[in-house]
Design brief:
heterodimer, A: about 120 residues, four-stranded mixed beta sheet, B: about 325 residues, alpha/beta, Purple Acid Phosphatase, chain A, domain 2, six-stranded mixed beta sheet, 8 helices, about 20% helix
Chain lengths: ~120, ~325
């Protein structure tokens, strides 16, 4: 069950600053990262991607985690690079970016939600 | 929470049936159930909690009930038992003094588009005396398959992504789909094919034909910052401007809101599952958690009545409290 908002934020900050992996709850993640350290994570919270723009070196695996009470997904704004399954609460999706470029994406369910991964 | 017993229009300068005070009362009602009665091209709200007010809505030759956003499968804190609240809605429908001829479900039937979720809603709605249900999909009903399953279940006789029209007692009903092919950064979308179909669909109708349009996402800009609007709705409405009476029924925002623009009355229904915050009143439009004893006062259904010749629909929102 989702915790109160301040707790979530606190946990989110911990994940961000210390690189802790938040253990997943009842439902299995869409895809588990190979490494125990998640260096690059984009949180979906309050109908937004955080950070909205993430810059990573080529070869990086980026993981999205849905912390909202409603489902979201990740779809490329142009092209077909990203197309995640629908992520319910606490579910994750990972993608490894091998080629440099700017990857714009949005939530296909709530298209006002947009984000960007810049691969250098 | 005190419920309004009646919503009298005290000062009606525009003769549109809704003055500022009335509108604010409508807003204050958010979450109470409604009977929609159309009269003279305008909507009037009556409280289902006050049977005497329903007498004014009765006598209509066509009445139907709108339910919306049942979100079957949702199990979070905002409402851990959406089956129970949908069943309460059916009980209320069956207990209504005027039995509706049919039900309209304005989408988000399910939460995650799972077959079992659709099955459960079908099963619960079979308990309604009004056996016929007309659907349009919400974005939660087309997850993962661009609406394929939805069309298999409810799309018989529809066009494109599931849009269609039908006539009941002289009223022309139009079900629109604005939850497919959504573009990055955008709102709900009808798309060119559907707009062309709509233009053609109403072409042969006389100006005096009452029109009821129903779709999931509001066809007016309720709050674009939260995606509460439809990008190409103005184009759709331009085909309907010539009609004397147009009623637009939507869901999606889990609260009642009403707006009158010329001959077009817009109305959104409450959810049977969970409330959402008023525009801008929270960081996001996510499910709103309220104390358990308040939940049912923020869920509801909407009844609509039409009186031939009177050229009007009456709309009454009623809560599940």
């Amino acid at each position: 069950m989702k915790k109160a908002l301040p707790t979530i934020t606190a946990v989110a900050l911990l994940v961000l600053s210390l690189g802790f992996s938040k253990s997943s709850h009842a439902k299995p993640a869409a895809s588990e990262p190979n490494s125990s350290r998640e260096q690059y994570q984009i949180k979906i919270d309050n109908f937004s991607f955080g950070p909205a723009t993430l810059t990573v070196p080529a070869g990086t695996t980026v993981t999205w985690i849905n912390q909202d009470d409603v489902p979201h997904n990740i779809v490329s704004s142009e092209g077909k690079t990203l197309k995640s399954p629908v992520l319910d609460t606490d579910q994750k999706f990972s993608y490894t970016f091998t080629t440099a470029g700017t990857y714009s994406y949005y939530c296909g369910i709530h298209p006002k939600m947009t984000g960007k991964v810049i691969v250098r | 929470m005190q419920r309004q017993k009646q919503d009298l229009i005290l000062h009606n300068h525009n003769d549109d049936g809704v003055d500022r005070r009335g509108f604010l009362k409508c807003m204050a009602w958010a979450g109470t159930g409604a009977l929609l009665v159309m009269k003279g091209g305008i909507l009037r709200s009556y409280s289902l909690s006050d049977p005497s007010s329903l007498a004014g809505a009765a006598g209509g030759e066509l009445s139907f009930i709108q339910i919306s956003d049942s979100h079957m499968g949702f199990d979070k804190a905002a409402n851990p038992d959406v089956v129970a609240t949908l069943k309460v809605a059916v009980d209320r429908i069956n207990a209504a003094p005027i039995q509706p001829e049919f039900l309209l479900h304005t989408g988000d039937i399910t939460h995650l588009s799972k077959p079992g979720e659709f099955d459960t809603v079908d099963q619960v709605l079979k308990g309604a005396k009004a056996s016929q249900v007309f659907y349009v999909p919400g974005e939660h009903d087309v997850l993962g398959d661009d609406g394929k399953q939805y069309l298999e279940r409810y799309g018989k006789g529809t066009k494109g992504g599931g849009w269609y029209s039908f006539d009941k007692k002289g009223v022309h009903f139009i079900g629109l789909v604005n939850v497919l092919d959504l573009k990055a950064g955008g709102l709900g979308t009808l798309g060119r094919d559907q707009l062309e179909w709509l233009e053609d669909d109403v072409k042969h109708l006389s100006d005096s034909t009452p029109i009821v349009v129903f779709a999931h996402i509001p066809l007016w800009a309720v709050y674009p910052e939260w995606g509460w609007g439809t990008d190409d709705s103005a184009q759709a409405l331009s085909y309907l401007m010539r009609f004397g009476s147009v009623t637009v029924l939507n869901g999606h925002i889990h609260q009642t809101m009403q707006k009158v623009e010329g001959n077009i009355t817009f109305h959104t229904a409450t959810s049977t599952a969970f409330p959402q915050p008023r525009p801008g009143a929270a960081p996001s439009p996510g499910p709103m958690k309220v104390p358990a004893e308040q939940l049912r006062s923020l869920l509801g259904l909407t009844s609509v009545g039409y009186v031939t010749g009177k050229h009007s629909l009456a709309i009454v929102d009623s809560s599940l409290a």
